[in-house]
Amino acid sequence: MRQVVLLRGINLGARNRIAMPQLRELLSGAGFEDVRTYLQSGNVVLGSDASSKELTSRCQRLIGARFGLEIDVVVRTRDELAQVVRRDPLGEIASEPKRYQVSFCAAEPDREIVRKLAACAVEPERFVAIGRELYAWHPTGVSRSKLWAQLAGKRLGVTATARNWTTVAKLLELADA
Hints:
By secondary structure, this protein is an alpha+beta fold. The protein has 2 domains: 2-79, Alpha-Beta Plaits, CATH 3.30.70; 86-165, 2-Layer Sandwich (Alpha-Beta Plaits), CATH 3.30.70. The chain is 37% helix and 24% strand. The protein contains 6 helices and 8 strands. It has helices at 20-29, 52-67, 78-87, 111-120, 146-152, 165-176, and strands at residues 2-7, 33-38, 43-47, 73-77, 100-105, 126-130, 133-137, 160-164. It has a 4-stranded antiparallel β-sheet, sandwiched between helices. A 4-stranded antiparallel β-sheet has the order 6-7-5-8. The two termini are 12 Å apart.
């Protein structure tokens, strides 16, 4: 089964550095099939019959043992990622894919947290929560966005990592290859 493994907070400046060739080597050596990475920000597509929970735990342990880093990991199957793309609740207004973000959460965030996030969206931003995904359109960028500050932080109550729409689409393409 094709699965997408998303690492949170790697290769941002000088912290949590992991070279993608070494990550591919580590995961291939651990028995995962057809391991591919996209960009330097911890996007991995691989073959595994493990459950998402097992795959998350195993990847975290492997990364910790090899690189000495405690990295949060979020996993989606190929079919779950395809569903994220099919839903695309903001596709009609999100005209610039690099400013359209999807936060992938390990579990569904609490309703009160989702309500607070929605309240942070300032026109012309848009925010939609569907299950374990949080879709956010930042047409003026993320640098001054209160919504983005909340999404990027650790206040969601669940492990989460965000990818822009360009990356989401490319990961689905890799999972289908």
